[in-house]
């Protein structure tokens, strides 16, 4: 749609008239474009025309819709076969263009907490709100409730001697990387080092290999392949009981329970992600039906719904590729770039549980 001249009331009338004449009530994604060509908002609707017309009915000038349409010099839209297709297209367009009025997706993500194992020189475990993870990190989640997660991660960091401070990376050194005449002070002034809860990379106390070994153990625990931290706590708890140190044994039991809670939550999350693995048949406008091959909550392939035996073969081939080629780096971690799509797809099936009846297992035999 061409841009219209900017003269508030006149501009709005012109935009409204264009939408009324040109837009259709079909599923689609629309973009509000500013005078300078910036896409300021992306939205989707099952009925594009009705949705766009609603922007011109905003009663109060400070309503979100009124503010968005005031910024727009042009409105563009693209039709897609279904509401689900619109949902995916909206998500991908928002991720690509990051329009400034699109806060909804960020807000969704902020309702969840994630665990990240950072890839800093001395990696640490952190709890993140939303998906705005800076730098390369291995991300696990989403989880609800950040408080218990923080406590459980503190136990894990303590039991493995990982740092939990936000000291800048350049302060981190290992004992086998020290430069002559550049010895750091032998105490970090940090209680975690003094009481043996951190190996102390800030004062070059551990070797690079010993710290890396603890990081590997943390990753293995988060991936569900090693329960070492829990087993060590159970062992210490037994020893404390045998020495009749019941108070200490009780404290160790609480730590152990927090870690077990973390492990169980990770297993539930893995189950939830795995349960979003199927072929999803969606009826499209005008018979444009599609099949979405979803694995671990992410659409890995989209094909026209098969109508002939040859189409069936194409679908089977695509399914085989999705099942065998999609790298699952860790059973519990979600690649950072997949988190938004996982959240959107999980929300879709939660809001539309009957849609699950259109799903079939990913089979190619
Ligand atoms: S001992 Fe050093 S590296 Fe460890 S948490 Fe404390 S300040 Fe950070």
| Average of the residue pLDDT scores | 85
Distance between the termini: 47 Å
Poorly predicted ranges:
none
Number of helices: 12
Largest sheet: 4 strands, antiparallel
Helix/strand class: alpha+beta
Share of β-strand residues = 15-25%
Shape: globular
Q: Helical residue percent?
A: 40-55%
Key words describing this protein structure:
single chain; 365 residues; alpha+beta; 4-stranded antiparallel β-sheet; 3-stranded antiparallel β-sheet; 10 strands; globular; binds iron/sulfur cluster
Notes on the protein architecture:
- The protein is an alpha+beta fold and 365 residues long.
- The chain has helices at 8-22, 48-55, 64-71, 83-97, 104-110, 147-160, 191-194, 208-223, 228-242, 246-275, 309-325, 339-351; strands spanning 28-33, 39-45, 74-79, 113-118, 125-129, 137-143, 278-282, 290-295, 298-304, 359-360.
- Helix 4 (83-97) runs antiparallel to helix 12.
- It is globular.
- Iron/sulfur cluster (SF4) binds next to helix 7.
Topology:
Blueprint: H1 8-22, E1 28-33, E2 39-45, H2 48-55, H3 64-71, E3 74-79, H4 83-97, H5 104-110, E4 113-118, E5 125-129, E6 137-143, H6 147-160, H7 191-194, H8 208-223, H9 228-242, H10 246-275, E7 278-282, E8 290-295, E9 298-304, H11 309-325, H12 339-351, E10 359-360
Antiparallel strand pairs: 1-2, 1-3, 4-5, 4-6, 7-8, 7-10, 8-9
Bound molecules: iron/sulfur cluster.
Task: Offer a quick outline of the entry.
This protein is α+β, with helices and mostly antiparallel strands.
């Amino acid at each position: 749609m061409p841009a219209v001249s900017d003269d508030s009331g006149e501009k709005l009338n012109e935009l409204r008239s264009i939408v009324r004449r040109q837009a259709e009530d079909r599923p689609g994604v629309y973009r509000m474009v500013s005078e300078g060509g910036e896409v300021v908002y992306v939205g989707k609707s099952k009925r594009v025309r009705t949705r766009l017309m609603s922007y011109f009915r905003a009663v109060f000038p400070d309503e979100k819709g009124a503010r968005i349409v005031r910024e727009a010099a042009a409105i563009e839209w693209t039709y897609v076969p279904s509401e689900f297709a619109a949902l995916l297209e909206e998500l991908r367009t928002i991720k690509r263009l990051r329009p400034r009025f699109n806060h909804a997706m960020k807000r969704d993500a902020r309702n969840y907490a994630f665990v990240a194992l950072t890839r800093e020189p001395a990696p640490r475990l952190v709890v993140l709100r939303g998906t705005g993870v800076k730098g390369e990190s291995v991300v696990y989640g989403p989880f609800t409730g950040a408080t218990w997660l923080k406590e459980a991660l503190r136990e894990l960091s303590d039991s493995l001697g990982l740092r939990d401070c936000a000291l800048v990376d350049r302060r981190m050194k290992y004992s086998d990387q020290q430069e002559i005449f550049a010895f750091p002070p032998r105490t970090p002034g940090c209680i975690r080092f003094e009481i043996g809860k951190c190996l102390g990379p800030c004062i070059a106390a551990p070797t690079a290999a010993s710290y890396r070994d603890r990081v590997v153990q943390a990753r293995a625990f988060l991936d569900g392949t090693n329960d070492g931290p829990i087993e060590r706590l159970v062992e210490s708890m037994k020893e404390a009981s045998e020495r009749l140190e019941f108070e200490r044994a009780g404290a160790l039991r609480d730590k152990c329970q927090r870690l077990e809670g973390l492990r169980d939550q990770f297993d539930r999350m893995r189950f939830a992600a795995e349960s979003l693995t199927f072929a999803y048949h969606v009826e499209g406008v005008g018979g444009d039906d599609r099949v979405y091959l979803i694995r671990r909550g992410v659409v890995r392939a989209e094909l026209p719904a098969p109508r002939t035996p040859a189409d069936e073969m194409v679908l089977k081939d695509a399914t085989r590729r999705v099942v065998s080629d999609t790298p699952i780096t860790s059973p519990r971690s979600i690649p950072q770039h997949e988190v938004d799509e996982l959240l959107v797809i999980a929300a879709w099936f939660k809001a539309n549980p009957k849609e699950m009846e259109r799903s079939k297992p990913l089979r190619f035999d």
